[in-house]
Design a protein that fits this description.
It is a single chain. The chain has five helices and four strands; from the N terminus they run ααβαβαββα. It has 165 residues and is mainly alpha-helical.
């Protein structure tokens, strides 16, 4: 049992798990911001543009509740026990998802660009293949440590250019 807990602890404190946990927490907080942006900023503007429609109260009554209709808000319909098709809430969810997906796309795109910029040109080679036995030897070697062949300056030039004898 102690081995099980030790393995679990090693798994839980790995960098990827901690990074994922931080991402989930930040994602939850970001979701609240996006919900507020959609509900409090975007939907009133869109509703105004399409004729004063409040998307959060856009619903269809499938079955009347105990109080009877008509219901002016979704909350009134739900309080009366009516069965509703909540189209407005679905539209809000789609808009929220689109915003989150776009922001995540921009974030991943930026991270990928930074990774590409970080890619450094390959360093000068420190090893070369012997033109006689094709084993790897240090770039400054004058004799192959494997086949003991003498490596001349001409051999070194051929080895660094990629063509072997």
């Amino acid at each position: 049992m102690a081995k099980f807990f030790k393995e679990f602890r090693e798994f839980a404190v790995k960098g990827n798990v901690v990074d994922m946990a931080v991402g989930i927490i930040i994602g939850g907080a970001f979701t609240l911001i996006v919900k507020s942006l959609v509900a409090d900023v975007m939907n009133p503007v869109i509703g105004l543009l399409v004729g004063g429609v409040d998307f959060s109260n856009l619903f269809f009554v499938l079955r009347e509740g105990s109080g009877g209709g008509p219901y002016t808000t979704l909350a009134d319909a739900q309080a009366a026990g009516a069965v509703t098709l909540n189209v407005g809430l679905f539209i809000n969810a789609v808009v929220s998802f689109t915003i989150v997906a776009f922001v995540v796309f921009l974030l991943v795109r930026t991270i990928n660009r930074m990774k590409r910029e970080e890619a450094v040109a390959p360093a000068d080679p420190t090893e070369k293949p012997c033109p006689y036995c094709f084993m790897v030897v240090p770039i400054k070697a004058v004799r192959c440590g494997h086949c003991t062949s003498e490596l001349t300056a001409e051999d070194a030039a051929e080895m660094t250019s990629g063509s072997a004898k």
